[in-house]
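Justification of resources, computational component.

The compute hours requested in this renewal are based largely on the per-chain cost of generating structure records like the one below. Each record pairs the submitted sequence with a full structure-token output. That output is archived, and it is also reused by downstream analysis tasks.
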Amino acid sequence: MTHPTGRVVVAFSGGLDTSYCTAWLRETTGAEVVTVTVDTGGFAAAELSALEARSRACGAHRHLLVDGRQHAFDRVIVRLIQGNVLRGAVYPLCVSAERLTQAELLVQSALDLGADAVAHGSTGAGNDQVRFDVAIRTLAPQLEVLTPIRDRALTRQQETDWLRERGISVPDSTRTYSVNAGLWGTTIGGGAIHDPWNAVPDEAYPTVVAPEGAPATGVTVTLAFRQGVPVAVDGAELDGPELVRQLHGLGSEHGVGRGVHLGDTILGIKGRIAFEAPAAQILIAAHRELEKLVLTRWQRFWKDQLAEFFGMVVHEALPHDPVFEDLEALIVSSQRRVTGEVRVHLCRGTVTVAGVRSPHSLVDVAAATYGETQSLWDRRDAEGFCRIYGLQGRLARAAAKGGDAP
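The structure output for this chain reads:
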């Protein structure tokens, strides 16, 4: 790693790793260090107000706070909703959405500040190093990427000791789990969670109550969508981040959104995390049901296939490959008639769709009553369809037996 002497922007969370990065770069490079925090919904108000003081204590020349919540919703979360994206059929890509936003706004801040380099505090083990490195090098190849934690291979105790030697206070960590919170959800790692045989204990989840401790009666809420974008809760129109925030709170009270994801990291090893994402569970369940009402089966089939790949592109640090825009174009096109309302019932960890309606519904109640009568065809049409529909299978079976089709 070279030592720039100009201006370095540090992706700053205020935690141990980014505090070390800030202080170490200030001491060893002689560069002007500016810390940038991109808030994607994971900071409490008190934490945000303390970040600047923490930055200065670590020797930064300046601290910049960027509100990235709306960008996160518009840039990626809304597409994850429209695509019904769940990695491994369970995980709504909480961290992936957050890091995409942070990396993009970090680069923009570095360019606006005329920086020569960008630093982040990722280690050499996880997905985040790939997400930041790839985004920075793709969006601003002229910026040098600095990774003190990865390059120096330090333990957390070594970082703590180095900071304390310089009079920089580091709170003792008593947390068993590593928690990463953002607008789209919270991930929980460490402790017993790494072992796939272990159940995740209730105390690992920071906000969602245990389903058995939630109100037995549950609650029903009506969600409105406009071209696949959630726009209202119980008739009250809200901007995207606020709508997600309200559903997170409501779902948490009713035990909704807890989960465990076991899957492949970008680097190719297996990883296991717990997560809580009440808003994601509610919105994806509702949106999926609305799509069933208004899309043809082939629209749904192909959108679902490509949306799964879209989720992989987001998760695996490739949102700046042109394929992202290609997939996004299909998803957006598929949502032209995904407008309507969905009534969902939340009760002790479950999300049940109670009703759905749309001006673009493909259910024509007047035309057909299943099991009884219909007006779109007569019995002869049905008989002919049944005869032709299985023809290829009958021919294949006859060919395998060396005889004529029955």
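Residues 131 and 317 are 5 Å apart (CA to CA). The radius of gyration is 26 Å.
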